[in-house]
Amino acid sequence: MTARETLAVARLGGRIYWRDKQALTATVLTSLGLGIGLPVLMDRVRAGDPSVVAAQLLGMLAVVLTLSGFNQSAVSLTARRDQLVLKRLRATGLSDGAVLGGELLNIMVQGVLIALVTTVAVVNLTSAPAPRDPILFAVFVVLGAAVITLLGAAWTVVIPRAEVAAPMSIPFFMIAGLGAGAFGPMGQLLPGWLTTALDLLPTAAVVKVGRATFADGTFADDLQAAAVPLLILTVWAAIALLVISRWFRWEARRS
Amino acid sequence: MEAIQVDGLRKSYGDFEAVREISFSVARGEIFALLGRNGAGKSTTMEVLAGFQRPDGGTVRVLGLDPVKDRAKVRKSTGIMLQEAGFFPDLTVAQTVDSWRQLVPAARPRAEALELTGLTGKAGTKVRQLSGGEKRRLDLALATLGRPDLLFLDEPTTGMDPEARKATWDVVTDLAAHGTTVLLTTHYLEEAQRLASRMAIMDRGAIVAAGGMAETLAAQTGRVAFELPDGVEIHDLPVEATAVEGGTVICRVPDPDVAAQTLLGWAGERGLRLRGLEVRTATLEDLFLDLASKENA
């Protein structure tokens, strides 16, 4: 796999992405609508409480990353698998790593862009403050998007056909949003074991670091807060890579 | 070194044995046809040779390399026209070729690729608006983009009109004349007979006939057919009839020209006319039908 080949596939994927009305509606418009709309609404309901709006923003980032990373990855790769586009790409002489890496890089970049646009919009349209440590915040958005996109590719292993990719992936953004507080303090109503499980999600790792970068503290505090989330993301990435390397299907099943 | 060497290849999908210990080789610069009915194992064989499927047994070498282990190296010298493979429907033909040019080393210029496959006039058309035959031509344009040493063509002219089919034959013939090795699978026996110098016929995963096209057909019986004249009994004919179908006598003979001359001489002596006389040497279709009848017997 060469960087040139991977970038070539990513560029092609990006070209297709921005022409695909379905992807634009399901991913870009929905993500931006939810990600910006709910914090703006919260800002009207809870005027004068920037921390609540910031918490809502972080919760929505979990939803946005899941929709634009996990769901888009699962839906897009399943469709390209079933339509034999992946097979055609493999027929070019590109390595498997370049084909899949390019596809995922494109989806990840779109996810990061949507997450960053959401953040900038919410910070500018509401009373939510900007993150104190924007670089660490951005780094974890990128890492989170990468891992979540990889997990979407791994999820295609259990998706039998393209038609059911979307319905089979939708529950994950609800779960991610619930765990990250995107829908309000519903997490407080959940049993303890479930709260602990939700805290282990990759989206929760991004949100946890996000909270640290929005709160008062020092760079050392931020690094300390980032240690466990980094470990969680690493474990999820390893799981995704293992599943992909063993069971990823390049074309529809024959028997 | 052969371009393709297959020895004892086996491949199954679950309990279904798609390919059963087949062996054949394809010389460099040769057009080799792999023929057979649906489900005979042709496409599976091609998928193994292209490195998409791992063989269950036997050895396969493509340009001297293992197509699975050395897939990236093999692919850089091969072009593949798959029987089915998707496109991005919202891209135009020109955008599709341009996109693929970024993925193929030393690719042909777009104009050359489109001209080669007769798609210049469709450059601005979206792929979703192309006919089935035009999509096959776009497929061929992508397969030949990297000027491959070896070209896999899986049912290349399916869905094409006769003119496009002939144009595609010309492209394939021209590529082979310039040294490209071609492995072709097709349902169209005329296509195989026209293009290939050697062939193998597969049935139920095994090769049931193989060899040079001309020699194999020469070894087959030819066919003379005519309407039985009024008042003539079948046993009166100077050539043994193989069958009578709706008043038409069919004679399967090693040399159909000699048989026809004998029949015409016999009819002339008796003042008879042999209406609907047809004389032809063996075709691949005859070979197919022979194989099928042997199988049914």
Automatic annotation (TrEMBL), chain A:
Residue spans crossing the bilayer: 23-42, 54-77, 98-123, 135-158, 170-190, 226-248
Keywords linked to the UniProt accession: Membrane, Transmembrane, Transmembrane helix
Residue intervals of the ABC-2 type transporter transmembrane domain: 16-213
A Pfam cross-reference name: ABC2_membrane
Membrane-topology descriptor: Multi-pass membrane protein
Top-level lineage group: Bacteria
Cellular compartments annotated: Membrane
Protein name: ABC transporter permease
